[in-house]
Amino acid sequence: MTSDDSARRAELLAKLVDYSRAHGLADMSLRPLAAAVGSSPRVLLYFFTSKDQLVREVVAHSRREQVELVQAELTVPATDDAAGEPAGRSAVDRLWQWLTDPDNAHVERLFFESYALSLRAEPGAWEGYGAASVAEWLPQLRPVAERLMPGADPDVAATLLLATVRGLLLDRLATGDSRRTDRAMTMFLRGLDGTALTVD
């Protein structure tokens, strides 16, 4: 593949990722997908060899971008922050704000669509997506979870944090109830450091 081909492939992949976040990919055929990104089925097959491979690369690329953003949001301060929040809680607050930003809802919908499709345990484009996502997120959450739950098994603590964040996020996307899910996240974090569970 020439350098021009590589550049064109990268350009198409970026467009495909943007398209998939807005529209999903589960039931999309190559022809309308190609038209949406200004290409043709033949060109897409040249660069990605098959629809399954194309989808696999799109969801993997999107997942990597999400992990990079998670890394940025989970920078844990060495001590309590200026507002007096325990170290770790402020990092989760930042992550939650990013995940629940309406501008990022399309990213989260694609994530949950891909995750759900991977649960079929069938060979194909989404195979292994869910397991890979857990494996990528846990190391990012472990340092924060250790601060939130000192003395707990780090992997178990990170698993609890991951399940809570994703469960509340899925609830929010399904119901649109931002107040209830925000309060639930606040209650969860307060419960970890022993403060009162009553929230406004």
Summarize this structure briefly.
By secondary structure, the chain is mainly alpha-helical.
Task: Provide keyphrases for this structure.
elongated; 9 helices; mainly alpha; 200 residues; Tetracycline Repressor, domain 2
Q: Which architecture of the domain at 57-192 would the CATH scheme give at its second level?
A: Orthogonal Bundle
Topology order in helix (H) and strand (E) letters? HHHHHHHHH
- The global form is elongated
State the helicity in percent bands.
Answer: over 70%
SS summary, helix count? 9
Stretches where pLDDT is under 50 for at least 5 consecutive residues are none
CATH superfamily of the domain at 57-192: Tetracycline Repressor, domain 2
Report the CATH C-level class of the domain at 57-192: Mainly Alpha
- Mean pLDDT score: 85
Q: Structural class, judged by helices and strands?
A: mainly alpha
Instruction: Work out the strand percent.
Output: under 5%
Rounded radius of gyration (Å): 19 Å
At CATH level 3, the topology of the domain at 57-192 is: Tetracycline Repressor, domain 2
**Sheet of most strands:** none
Q: Give me the count of strands.
A: 0
Distance between the termini: 58 Å
Description:
70% of the residues lie in helices and 0% in strands. It is an all-alpha fold and 200 residues long. It has a domain at 57-192: Orthogonal Bundle (Tetracycline Repressor, domain 2), CATH 1.10.357. The N and C termini lie far apart (58 Å).
Describe the secondary structure blueprint for this structure.
Elements: H1 3-23, H2 30-36, H3 41-48, H4 51-73, H5 89-99, H6 105-118, H7 129-148, H8 154-175, H9 178-192
